[in-house]
Amino acid sequence: MNPRPAERCQQSLARWRSALEADLLARRAAVPGRRPHLRRRKGRIAVVTDSSSSLPVDRGTQEVLLGPVGTNIISVPIPVMIGDQIYPETSPDLDRDLPMALAVGSPVRTSRPSPGRLMQAYQALQAQGYAGVVSIHLSAKLSGTVEAARLAAGQLDFPVTVIDSGQAGLGLGHAVIDAAITAQLGGSPASVAEAATRSAEQAESLFVLPNLDQLRRGGRINAMSTLIGGLLWVKPLLQLVEGEIHPVERPRTMPRALERLQDRVAQQAHGMTAPRLAVHGFGNQAQALELAEALGPLSASPIPVVDLPPVLAAHLGLGALAVSLNPELPGTR
């Protein structure tokens, strides 16, 4: 019996996590005078991000589920509002309610985390003995999370470097992972921030939507683009450009849109050193798995197939498909 789509998505995540762990151990072993499992105790740098990064988290504890790679990462949830109900954390309730709300057109909004919530994360890491934090977040042109992080950092006598990734999804998530690995290898705050910035700046994020309605409701794309899309019955192909959502093409059918998405991803992958791909979907796991299989030969590492986090699904809607590409973190694999 073939595994169900949900099981296959979990299997893709397991392969991806295993590859990340193997890469981390290989890099540790390559550091002169350092044994593979030796952990640095002094001068450690932690990495903070937000739930738009698509990194897997425990729904109860919000712990990042990346094994050894995630030991110095904290993900702060971005609140989602359905009608008058606020969901401050990722939870099974939000997983259940959000698809239903999107399907029936209920109002869905998002908000930035409060500076106080981010400050709590920074203070917790300081209490754990970390020497500093690099805080990497969703594009400032899409969310106020970067601003909230800077406000929180400015109130602490503790070094926090805040980075506007200009990205979302695993385009951001892989930049966070690169920063975390650099920190675990003994990197300074400057080198950790540089690793994240390099990965995010060279990342590409493309996505296909059944329609632009949800983006319009959330104010993430202008009304004229929505009007044009509705009149032409298009399935828009969009891309993050300098942190903003820009239309790339306007295919009229979903099969054509997916074909053009694959073509664009192939073009960008061929121009990138050892690209790492990821596929996101929402309410369409089987379709996301098919896309990942088609793109497999382009990726230098296993492709995780993940649901869009609620903060992104709230704006992209049901049936969205997205692909992110990040270059390989420099160094020995």
From TrEMBL:
Keyword annotations: Lipid-binding
Pfam families found in the cross-reference section: DegV (PF02645)
Top-level division of the source organism's lineage: Bacteria
MF (Gene Ontology): lipid binding
Statement: the UniProt record of this protein carries the keyword Transport: no
SUPFAM superfamilies assigned: DAK1/DegV-like (SSF82549)
UniProt key word Membrane: no
Record InterPro entries: DegV (IPR003797), DegV_C (IPR043168), DegV_domain_contain (IPR050270)
Protein known as: DegV family protein with EDD domain
Species this chain originates from: Nesterenkonia sandarakina
Source taxonomy: Bacteria, Bacillati, Actinomycetota, Actinomycetes, Micrococcales
